[in-house]
Amino acid sequence: MDTAEVERLIEEGIEDAEATVTLPRNPDQDHEDAHFAAVVVSPAFEGKSLVQQHQMVYDALGDHMTTDIHALEMKTYTPEEYDALEG
């Protein structure tokens, strides 16, 4: 699984989401550890706790979290929160 596929799954699974997925460390070729980092921005996160936001991302990735993705670092934001970071 590559970063583009993880982005696609998140964006398809969460309404109006924009996901940026990177590889935060070099993959271990011996173990095929698939470590990803995701920044996800969506108005669907409005009024949700951080745990609920992260659960939405896990739900969007479904079974891939147990088969293709070894670890996922994530940061989730509403558009307003993300704009405040940028500003």
From TrEMBL:
Protein name per its UniProtKB record: BolA family protein
Organism whose genome encodes this protein: Halobium salinum
InterPro entries the UniProt entry points to: BolA, BolA-like_sf, BolA/IbaG_stress_morph_reg
Family: Belongs to the BolA/IbaG family.
Xref: Pfam families: BolA
